[in-house]
Amino acid sequence: MSLFFLLHASLLQTAASLSEEQMDVWSLIMEATLVVQLVMITLVLMSVVCWFIIGAKASRISQASRRSTAFLDAFWDKEEGTHWTTERLEALYARLSSFDGSPLSSVFKAGYVELARVMASQGASGASHEGDLENVERALKRTATNELTALETRLPFLATTGSTGPFVGLFGTVWGIMNSFLQIKNDGSAGIDTVAPGIAEALIATAIGLVAAIPAVMAYNYFVRRIRVIESELDAFSNDYLNIVRRYFLRG
After folding, report:
1. What integer pLDDT is reported at residue 98 of this predicted model?
2. Number of folded domains in the chain?
């Protein structure tokens, strides 16, 4: 009797008996072999961790987007127009606490601090050097990289769960089916009552693997796309800020 025939027969028998005797999934899990139970527990723990990461990342990225939008509105203040002065930057710097959580505000803070240091080192001469602007640029890039790294923290676990979850569940499935064949050998019978429990617990392991993997993959792809958008905003803001610094503060 082939494996596919056993699987098909088990599913048909289960469907036919639903009206007479409801399958107790919890009993199947509790009566599963130790290896299959360990597989299920591993997958459940992976799923719990994934949902924790999904909730935390959704909140963090949503906060970053909202605060960054508010920061850009303050930075490109229409009332101030394109008139950039040291006082304007100082005023914005003093308000940064209201934009906590915004990657853009962190980048601006790093650029402002480095610009202030460069301008202070120029002294009364007011002459700037080519390396001064490069220092500001490095500060912007370093902070942008740190912000993106922080946003991407723990995302690899979602990717790992999405790629390995089905295979971990498949391992439990293979183990359960193997036990069903061993039971056939020991009992000398290939009846549905003999193989159904092992196959049922095996299929449960596969189902849990898919339940853990599918949300993880979907969340990972969503978060990566959102982070790429934030990365683009950081690049655009860094370029705009460097242009302002070059034009109004470090003209040489």
Report:
1. 94
2. 1
Q: Which domain holds residue 7?
A: 3-15+24-104+153-227
- pLDDT (tens digit per residue) in 158-188: 999 999 999 999 998 888 888 777 777 676 6
**Cα 161 to Cα 32: distance, rounded to the nearest angstrom:** 23
Secondary structure (H, E, C), 55-116: HHHHHHHHHHHHHHHHHHHHHCCCCCCCCCCHHHHHHHHHCHHHHCCCHHHHHHHHHHHHHH
Residue 136: inside a domain:
no
In the Cβ-directed half-sphere of 155, how many Cα atoms lie within 13 Å? Answer: 20
- Residue 49 domain flag: yes
97-151 confidence digits (pLDDT tens): 999 999 999 999 999 999 999 888 876 455 566 678 899 999 999 999 999 999 9
Tokens 């360990």: give the residue.
38
Structure tokens at 165: 């979850």
Is the pTM higher than 0.85? no
In a domain, 240, yes or no: no
C-alpha to C-alpha distances, 164 to 26, 77, 176, nearest whole angstrom: 24, 49, 19
pLDDT digits (tens, 9 = 90+) for 4-13: 444 444 444 5
Angle made by CA atoms 6, 11, 13, in degrees to the nearest 5: 95
**For residue 207, what are its two tokens?**
């189902």
Q: Is residue 37 part of a domain?
A: yes
